[in-house]
Amino acid sequence: QMQLQESGPGLVKPAETLSLTCTVSGGSISSNSYYWAWIRQPPGKGLEWVGSIFHSGSTYYGPSLKSRVTISVDTSKNQFSLKLNSVTAADTAVFYCTRHSVHGANDFWGQGTLVTVSS
Amino acid sequence: QSVLTQSPSVSAAPGQKVTISCSGSSSNIESNYVSWYQQLPGTAPKLLIYENNKRPSGIPDRFSGSKSGTSATLGITGLQTGDEADYHCGTWDSSLSAHVFGPGTKVTVL
Asked: 3-state DSSP: chain A helix, strand, coil percent, rounded to 5?
């Protein structure tokens, strides 16, 4: 059974860069049928798609965060990563890594990791 | 502010049926596939419905999805206490070039 696990600091200072990694197990990140994504959820609010990556390295990002986001993939480690720079308190959220189909259905999710932006 | 709208909450007694609607526009729901997710308190969302009306393996047939025009609907029959959760719809928005989600609907079992 495929599993995804987020890792990274739970506390980031304002104006710094948030960095998270998602490790995929039980399947290959190099599948030609799926994309890999980051989705975030501020406390008590809804889901927001951050961006997605294909194993080739091709990326696409949500319009509201596009200028601050970089997603990369390391197929040798079966991992993909998120960097969000110039963070503010508004970026405090639970970040999930997911696998999704070309039609956008997210069928596997990590457990989520809370990242708090605070000095 | 999401481009998809959902009622904030819905409630019903055990064994009853609830429907959750997700309203959008021609650039998202009408022209793209819709998926639905169940989020139990304190957990990650779980895929319930994909491609408008398909259920992943392991999802009981008490859960159903449909789409008509710019709206999509999730139905839950035989409501159980374990169904108390937030339910989110999601789709692609061709104008925004973005995956979008509704704000979520909280289901309460009375």
From this structure: 5, 50, 45
Nearest to residue B51, comparing CAs of A55, A17, A106?
A106
Asked whether the beta carbons of A25 and A5 are under 8 A apart, the reply is yes
Summarised one tens digit per residue, pLDDT across range B64-106 is 999 999 999 999 999 999 999 999 999 999 999 999 999 999 9
Closest-approach residue (CA) in chain A for B99: A49
Quick one: tokens of A59? 């990326």
The A residues from 50 to 89 touching B (CB cutoff 8 Å) are: 52, 60, 62-63
Among residues B22, B8, B19, B4, the alpha carbon closest in space to that of B77 is found at B19
Q: How does residue B1 score in pLDDT terms, banded at 50, 70 and 90?
A: confident
Cα–Cα distance for residue pair A39/A42, rounded to 1 Å:
10
- The residue in chain A having the minimum alpha-carbon distance to the alpha carbon of residue B105 is A46
